[in-house]
Amino acid sequence: MKRPDILTVNTTAATPGPHPATARTLTLAEPDTPFAVVDVHRVLRNAERLARRAERLGVVLRPHVKTAKSLDVAALLRDPSGAPCPVTVSTLAEAEAFADGGHTDLTYAVGIAPHKLPRVLALLRRGVRLRVLLDSGAQAEAVAEAARGAGLAIPTQIEIDCDGHRGGLRPEDPALTDIGRVLHEAGCLDGVLAHAGESYFATTPEARRRAAEQERDAAVTAAERLRAAGLPVPVVSVGSTPTAHAAEDLGGVTELRAGNYVFFDLVMAGLGVCRVDDLALSVVVTVIGHRPELGRILTDGGWMAMSRDRGTARQAQDQGYGLVTDLDGRLLPGLVMTDASQEHGILTAREGTDLPELPLGTRLRILPNHACATAAQHRGYHVVDSSRTGTGAPEAVAYWPRVTGW
């Protein structure tokens, strides 16, 4: 993957807000805390890793933008021709923003609510191929009726339940072909889609491989049943970050989806999908107090900055609300964000580790449990590049806004 000049990707000044860009570059010692930071060097490294894997497996990679919700991050994932990559979205607000940004190949991977179909049709009329997802006859009838009324096909995928995690039809469900026929007769059947949500609890490489095989087999079996009924299935889509990195054979699959991988997080590191050194998202906080009698350091970054996610609590190593690094991103051994109130973070040392001396005003970075949830607490990202060497606080070479809303 060719390394882009991130300043040509940047859409906003280095400082968020209504004021024009200043001539100088900020450092992480300057913006008011707490704020989110993205390391573009790690994003590119993570993106290249999965892009190579998808190429080796012979499938199209359709990144899920629900994690970063950033056109600037997606611009780093362009194909070799420089064209915008196909993406998966989790909200219609994302679909509209990415369409405005030049993306014309989108999958809205949340079950469609009929009242949202006018927004879908508006994007289709703009020339954006926006696929919708469903798993019921009622949804299929609503899509077919809307498509006929508009005189416009609505590309639709049937969600397949591969592991009982959430929605979808089991591959053997008799309703599968009935739903497929309703969609096909309206010119809307586009394929099948599966997501191995239970893979986020697969703690060994073998368990993740099995989850990837189960995900593939469910989607391919559903596609074969539809084809046996004389129905077209052009797209067979699978993916989650754990299974995308574990799959060894995607025969019968046409595309791979994943989203968390651009940033990664402590849950993924705890599963063994990545290393802590791969985490591209962090939150800068400031030390605002000390309670030595309780073994605590207080910061101004509470759950409003980090989210309430405690996804590592069920893993072998509980990372609290996040691991702590210095401003340069170096881990402070044994220091963990173990508690949070709305605007206060509490740092403590693991057993056998001394609490470090961190004076009032010290800036730190917290690595999150769940990148999607932590990113959602912020309007955008101050961008650093850890491949650049220098002295002093890291430079924030760009500011990338996030898409918000639904």
The number of distinct β-strands equals: 19
Query: Strand count, sense and closure of the main sheet?
Result: 8 strands, parallel
| Helix coverage percent | 25-40%
How many independent structural domains? 2
Based on Cα principal axes, name the global outline: elongated
Strand order of the largest sheet: 3-10-9-8-7-6-5-4
CATH topology of the largest domain: TIM Barrel
Gap from first CA to last CA: 32 Å
Oligomer: single chain
Low-confidence stretches: 7-23
Fold and architecture overview:
The relative contact order is 0.17. An 8-stranded parallel beta sheet has the order 3-10-9-8-7-6-5-4. It has 12 helices and 19 strands. The chain has 2 domains: 6-39 and 269-401, Lyase, Ornithine Decarboxylase, Chain A, domain 1 (Beta Barrel), CATH 2.40.37; 41-261, TIM Barrel (Alpha-Beta Barrel), CATH 3.20.20.10. With 406 residues, it is of the alpha/beta class. Helix 7 (175-185) links the parallel strand 7 (156-160) and strand 8.
Please tag this protein with its features:
Ala_racemase_N, 12 helices, alpha/beta, D-ser_dehydrat-like_sf, eight-stranded parallel sheet, 2 domains, 406 residues, Lyase, Ornithine Decarboxylase, Chain A, domain 1
Write the layout of secondary structure elements.
Elements: H1 6-9, E1 26-27, E2 35-39, H2 40-57, E3 60-63, H3 71-75, E4 87-89, H4 92-100, E5 105-111, H5 117-125, E6 129-134, H6 137-150, E7 156-160, H7 175-185, E8 189-194, H8 205-228, E9 235-238, H9 241-244, E10 255-258, H10 266-271, E11 281-291, E12 296-299, H11 303-306, E13 322-325, E14 331-340, E15 345-349, E16 363-368, H12 371-375, E17 380-384, E18 395-396, E19 398-401
Parallel strand pairs: 2-17, 3-10, 4-5, 5-6, 6-7, 7-8, 8-9, 9-10
Antiparallel strand pairs: 1-18, 2-11, 11-12, 11-16, 12-15, 13-14, 13-16, 14-15, 17-19
